[in-house]
Design a protein that fits this description.
Elements (H helix, E strand, L loop, with lengths): L2 H6 L2 H8 L7 H19 L1 H18 L11 H12 L3 H14 L11 H7 L4 H10 L2 H11 L5 H8 L3 H19 L16
Helix pairs in contact: 3-4, 3-5, 4-5, 5-10, 6-8, 8-11, 9-10, 9-11, 10-11
InterPro entries: RNA_pol_sigma-70-like, RNA_pol_sigma-70_dom, RNA_pol_sigma70_r2, RNA_pol_sigma70_r4_t2, RNA_pol_sigma_r2, RNA_pol_sigma_r3/r4-like, WH-like_DNA-bd_sf
Protein name: RNA polymerase sigma-70 factor (ECF subfamily)
Pfam families: Sigma70_r2, Sigma70_r4_2
Length: 199
């Protein structure tokens, strides 16, 4: 396969090929490692992120024989693996949010200017938001942050979490309600868009 056609191939095709040619999986890493690393840093901080990202791609590589090849986009699958692995770091995540709460600024936010970051941060008090996020149940926080910081659609977040889309909607709705209560008069629209962005 030529380099150009390799780069254009969908993820399922790349994963299928990697079953015979393991080195082909490197393309999946190149496509998604930067985004997943940024997402994990936002949630756990830089120290834990390196390990979680490495573990995510190692687990994905080992599980590639079980990947559903009817799904051309591996992004939700990879975010799901990362989210599961982050479950071992809940204390680190809450500690990271508490640091943000005390400092009032997100140490990794400034280099990233994507719309999802703007959506969750614009106009909000970083301290209050961090406190509110730390207080959310893990399932609610996972759904909310996969959409807001991971920039996944509701359907992709459902795939990543292995739950129904309605469950993701419900968790995000509840998370937003809790954020509203926690943040008082601050405009809740900034936290996560109500409409499914990519569906």
């Amino acid at each position: 396969m030529s380099t150009a056609s390799e780069e254009d191939a969908d993820d399922a095709s790349v994963i299928r090929r990697s079953r015979q040619e393991p080195e082909a999986f490197a393309l999946v890493f190149r496509r998604y490692a930067p985004d997943i690393k940024r997402y994990v840093i936002r949630r756990l901080g830089a120290d834990a992120a390196e390990d979680v990202v490495a573990e995510t791609f190692l687990a994905a590589f080992r599980q590639r024989d079980r990947y559903d090849l009817s799904r051309p986009n591996a992004r939700p699958w990879l975010y799901g693996i990362a989210t599961n692995l982050m479950g071992r770091h809940v204390r680190t995540e809450v500690r990271q949010l508490r640091v943000l709460e005390r400092m009032g600024t997100d140490p990794v936010m400034e280099p990233f200017t994507e719309r999802s970051d703007e959506r969750i941060s614009a106009g909000a008090s970083g301290r209050a938001l961090a406190s509110a996020l730390a207080a959310l149940p893990r399932g609610h926080r996972d759904a909310l942050l996969l959409v807001a910081w991971g920039d996944l659609s509701y359907a992709e977040a459902a795939q990543a979490l292995d739950v129904r889309v309605g469950t993701v909607r419900s968790r995000i709705n509840r998370a937003r309600q809790k954020l509203r209560r926690h943040l008082g008069a601050t405009d809740p629209v900034i936290y996560v868009s109500e409409e499914p962005v990519h569906e």
